[in-house]
From TrEMBL:
It comes from Sapayoa aenigma (broad-billed sapayoa). This is Outer dense fiber protein 1. Belongs to the small heat shock protein (HSP20) family. It comes from the Eukaryota. The lineage of its organism: Eukaryota, Metazoa, Chordata, Craniata, Vertebrata. InterPro entries: A-crystallin/Hsp20_dom, HSP20-like_chaperone, ODFP. PANTHER family: OUTER DENSE FIBER PROTEIN 1. The keyword Transmembrane helix does not apply. It is found in: Cell projection, Cilium, Flagellum; Cytoplasm, Cytoskeleton, Microtubule organizing center, Centrosome.
Amino acid sequence: SRMQRFGRMSSSSRNRSRLALVDMKGFDPNDVTVMVKDRKVTVLAEHRDECNTSAAKTYNYRKLMKEFNLPAGVSENEVTCSL
């Protein structure tokens, strides 16, 4: 399963801890944007599908947005993510 993981690395202990785990099912990695600004981590994902058949044209649109506050003592520069 594809999950978005956010973590930080402590400069003293080098241990990783997880801030959030977000289910990204239905989104391609190119659909996902992660931003860190003003002590908040924002995950934004948008996906559009278009299907043409001889009878009809259908569209499917999905959007997800999650926002997390950084814990005290965590620098914005320490945030990493993986998909």
